[in-house]
Amino acid sequence: MQIEWFLRHLNQFCLKYHIAKANKTSYHSLCKFDQTNFLVLNDAEAESMARYETIKKASCIPGMPKESAIRRLVKQKRCPGWYSGSRFYVNVDMLLEQLDRQSREAVADQEGA
After folding, report:
1. pTM over 0.90
2. Residues 32 and 57 placed together within one structural domain of the fold
């Protein structure tokens, strides 16, 4: 449980760092730190942050497609996420919503035909 909490907060730390870097602002202006210089996030902030995973880790999440299918979506520029160097980070929540929406549209098209 502690490891999951740590990884979730580390993921948010990396996201805020990249946002600050992209906006050319100070990272410290986006974050609150406690006396030991640890990032402080309340549960509402933690839950509202998007979840980003590498392609390999994202493919292990229940409900996600196989790694090869995610890589194909990335190559077609249809997968939500961003690059950090040569590594692609998938926005897991947005991809699940996208796949759900596409499957509902396919079912609606079949029923309408």
Report:
1. no
2. no
